[in-house]
Amino acid sequence: MTQMVVGISDCKVTGDPDAVLTTYALGSCIAVAAHDPVSAVGGLLHYMLPEASLDRAKAESNPYMFADTGITGLLNEVCEGGANRRRLVVRIAGGAQVVNGHEVFQIGKRNYLAARKLLWKAGILVSAERVGGGVSRTVRLEVATGRTWVREEGVDQPLGETPRPRGGD
After folding, report:
1. Is the distance from CB of 83 to CB of 100 less than 8 angstroms?
2. CB 139 within 8 A of CB 35
3. Distance, CA of 14 to CA of 42 (rounded, Å)
4. Where do runs of H (alpha helix) occur along 23-133?
5. Which of 30, 75, 86, 98 has the fewest CB atoms inside 10 Å of its own CB, making it the most exposed?
6. Which residues pair with 153 in a beta bridge?
7. pLDDT at 100
8. Do the beta carbons of residue 74 and residue 33 sit within 8 Å?
9. Which of 151, 160, 163, 140 is nearest to 23 (CA)?
10. Residue 3: beta bridge partners?
11. Of the candidates 154, 159, 153, which has an alpha carbon nearest to the alpha carbon of residue 133?
12. Beta strands at 30-36 and 137-142: parallel, antiparallel or unpaired
């Protein structure tokens, strides 16, 4: 098994069936896991903020910091890696209301709404989600199977059903 850690404001995409993509410490940030069950290509994004317009210079140097540029990048990369956009199984987690002064800005909620809006506009339905609340989360995507796990308060739970390969369209 190849462990690939996705840091904050980071994205990793692979077709390696032995890879497990993992991101840690999701507070108000959002993780977006995308997997094609036919090509077995998967990607995981960990973004911090909803809109690149908040800081264009940072968005240019690190597009994975923001929902709009990060999700676009994730989708493009998994498709370049062999995934078919119509077959993607997408899951999201995070968006907690953390108590550190950001509650006034509702960053977790804004991050979540940005993901839903961007994915909807891209014609991609979210198959499962674990968002909100006040707990930190860890997300793990097994590339070979598409199984996605969320760890909350020390307990791993599956995030959605294991995707089954569909037709090769």
Report:
1. no
2. no
3. 6
4. 56-61, 67-80, 107-121
5. 86
6. none
7. 57
8. no
9. 140
10. 20
11. 153
12. unpaired
